[in-house]
Design a protein that fits this description.
This protein has strands spanning 2-6, 9-12, 17-24, 32-38, 45-51, 57-59, 67-72, 77-82, 91-98, 113-114, 118-123. Helix content is 0%, strand content 50%. It is mainly beta and 124 residues long. Strands 2, 4, 5, 6, 9, 10 and 11 form a seven-stranded mixed sheet that branches. It has a four-stranded antiparallel sheet with strand order 1-3-8-7, with no helix packed on it.
């Protein structure tokens, strides 16, 4: 599975961005796709995920109500709509794919595939 992320950039606080992640190669019905992020000097953290089958969604508390994850099965693409962005959302965002359980959806080791990362910068 190859993951190609796009859509990062510079935006003012309160603005919006949409990230996209296109998957190619073999995919599995039990997979979830999602996003992690890593800010300078901080550990990588879970942002959001969506199950390929059924479409269940999961969010970190820090983005709940502001970010929305969705998928387009026909295009094998996952989107992250980010609204009401804050300076603390500044990070490199990584697209991921893998077979996490509900209890490990937040765990980066649950994901077998990682995209190249796209930088999101939110200015104050």
């Amino acid at each position: 599975v190859q993951l190609q992320a796009s859509g990062g950039g510079l935006v003012q606080a309160g603005g919006s961005l949409r990230l996209s992640c296109a998957a190619s190669g073999r995919t599995f019905i039990n997979y979830a796709m999602g996003w992690f992020r890593q800010a300078p000097g901080k550990e990588r953290e879970f942002v959001a995920a969506i199950r390929w089958s059924g479409g269940s969604t999961y969010y970190a508390d820090s983005v709940k109500g502001r970010f929305t994850i969705s998928r387009d099965n026909a295009k094998s693409t996952v989107y992250l709509q980010m609204d009401s962005l804050k300076p603390e959302d500044t990070a490199v965002y990584y697209c991921v794919a893998g077979p996490p359980s509900d209890n490990s959806i937040w765990d980066p080791t649950s994901y077998h595939y990682w995209g190249q990362g796209t930088l999101v910068t939110v200015s104050s």
